[in-house]
Amino acid sequence: MDNKKVVVAIGRNALGDTFPEQKENVKKAAIAIADLVEAKYEVVITHSNGIQIGMIQTAMTEFSRLDSKNTVAPMSVCGAMSQGYIGFDLQNAIRTELINRGIYKPVATIITQVRVDPFDPAFHTPTKVIGRYMTKEEADLEEHKGNYVTYEESEEGKGYRRIIASPKPIDIYEIDSIKTLVDAGQVVIAAGGGGIPVLDQRTGLKGASAVIEKDYTAAKLADMLSASTLLILTSKEGVRINKGTDEETLLKKISVKQAEEYINAGQFNVLTSLPKMEASVNFVANGEGRRAVITSLDKAKEGILGKSGTIIE
User: Fold this and answer.
1) Is residue 299 domain-shared with residue 191, that is, in the same domain?
2) Residue 1 pLDDT > 60, yes or no?
3) How does pLDDT run across 186-207, given as a tens digit for each residue?
4) What residues make up the domain containing 108?
5) Per the structure, how many domains does the chain have?
6) Do 216 and 239 share a structural domain?
7) Do 91 and 238 reside in the same domain of the chain?
């Protein structure tokens, strides 16, 4: 394979739920990335931020409640903050792992903005639950502001929570900067959390109250970089069909057509495995000689070699 450019999408389980957990967990991700670099792949990394952006949004909301002079941070700002601090931990862990292997290769994080369509239907049917639990009174106030809320009961608690849109990515504004760093031989971390969703307003960009599904942005990033491989790392070895039945099967090597048939048959969970499969199909179908691999973090090297995971080509 002449083209050894790979975009790696790291799932939320590789990061943990707290600052200390993330600092420890990224060491495992760093090993997987270093394995790819050692095998002479050009690596661009994107990652989830579901837990992290929720923590930041909650913290900034509480900050505003302590003093009316403090303002609530928009979701776009929370997204930027999450990109910065996740990138900080990731790039340092990867740098350390590479140096320990005798490899000197700069690692850089780019705060990345991703254009979304203001008329995307997702803005009218939000799906991403975020932030702290609220009382009925607080939820009513959020709705009065024009925000969506939903009632939720889980092991963590119960109450009302914000629910925001997840529009599809259209364009990546910092793509030229990403390409320049990759061409210079650097490991690049970009479009974290699916990128900061922004609306194009003539010469300016305005942050949107939304989060983008990171798998769709990973596919867009891989396409715009003309990568050969999209590697989606999760907590599972691959994607399964007929889950919970006697016919449950781990998908291994399949074609785009087969993947589309499984998608149309409703085989995948809308919030978890479906975005991974749709993103993989979109990427592979949009160019020649491409493949997508969905596997677990600890099997990243086997996945890139075609020995593990669900492979679409």
Assistant:
1) no
2) no
3) 999 999 999 999 999 988 999 9
4) 1-28+42-115+172-227
5) 2
6) no
7) no
Q: For residues 16 and 49, is the Cβ–Cβ distance under 8 A?
A: no
Neighbours of 216 (CB within 10 A): 23
Does the predicted TM-score (pTM) go above 0.85?
A: yes
Is residue 233 within 8 A of residue 300, CB to CB? The reply is yes
pLDDT digits (tens, 9 = 90+) for 138-187: 888 888 888 888 888 877 778 898 898 999 999 999 999 999 999 999 99
Contact of 115 with 147, CB cutoff 8 Å: no
Answer yes or no: are the C-beta atoms of 62 and 54 closer than 8 Å.
Answer: no
The CATH number of whichever domain residue 90 belongs to comes to 3.40.1160.10
Closest CA to 251 of 271, 236, 272: 236
Tell me if 305 sits within 8 A of 295, measured CB to CB.
no
Confidence bin at 2 (pLDDT 50/70/90)? low
Three state DSSP letters for the chain: CCCCEEEEEECHHHCCCCHHHHHHHHHHHHHHHHHHHHCCCEEEEEECCHHHHHHHHHHHHHHHHHCCCCCCCCHHHHHHHHHHHHHHHHHHHHHHHHHHCCCCCCEEEECCEEECCCCCHHHCCCCEEEEEEECHHHHHHHHHCCCEEEEEEECCEEEEEEEEECCCCCEECCHHHHHHHHHCCCEEEECHHHCEEEEEECCEEEECCECCCHHHHHHHHHHHCCCCEEEEEECCCCCEECCCCCCCEECCEECHHHHHHHHHCCCCCCCCHHHHHHHHHHHHHCCCCCEEEEEEHHHHHHHHCCCCCEEEC
Q: Is residue 66 part of a domain?
A: yes
Q: In this structure, is residue 196 part of a structural domain? A: yes
